[in-house]
Amino acid sequence: MSGGDEDRADALFHALSDRTRRDIMRRVLAGEHSVSALAANYDMSFAAVQKHVAVLEKAGLLVKRRSGRKQLASGDVAAVRSVASMLTEMEQLWRGRIARIDELIASESSEEG
């Protein structure tokens, strides 16, 4: 990964590291919500929810648009897919290591026998 890709990964995983932000993502992936409607779901100030939304927006996980006086937020499915593909890549590396360990154990067992 290039430096820019690593910065993007840092932003994505930081944004998803918070329970409230993950919950907001579940809601905005299911459909568009106004920020005020989102805020009604949490026991925190509107400003605190706005900050969570801003972190998700900065990471590119959600997009906001204005409709009259409302700010509407929706999840960016492509960004979520990019997180999933990063995790899949890590899983493939991990599975490759497990396979190499299995091969090493098998070769050591056959040498002993």
Key words describing this protein structure:
three-stranded antiparallel beta sheet, alpha+beta, 3 strands, 113 residues, 5 helices
Layout of helices and strands:
Elements: H1 3-15, H2 19-30, E1 33-34, H3 35-39, H4 46-58, E2 62-67, E3 70-75, H5 77-112
Antiparallel strand pairs: 1-3, 2-3
Helix pairs in contact: 2-4
Question: What does this molecule look like?
Answer:
The protein has helices at 3-15, 19-30, 35-39, 46-58, 77-112, and strands spanning 33-34, 62-67, 70-75. With 113 residues, it is an alpha+beta fold. A hairpin with a 2-residue loop joins strand 2 and strand 3. The mean pLDDT is 89.
Query: How would you classify the quaternary structure?
Result: single chain
Unreliable spans are: none
How many distinct helices? 5
Strand arrangement within the widest β-sheet reads 1-3-2
Q: From N to C, what is the helix and strand string?
A: HHEHHEEH
Q: Biggest β-sheet, characterized? A: 3 strands, antiparallel
Task: Report the count of strand segments.
Answer: 3
Helix/strand structural class = alpha+beta
Cα-atom radius of gyration: 20 Å
Helix residue percentage: 55-70%
Mean pLDDT: 89
How much beta, percentage-wise?
A: 5-15%
Distance between the termini: 43 Å
Q: What would you call the shape?
A: elongated
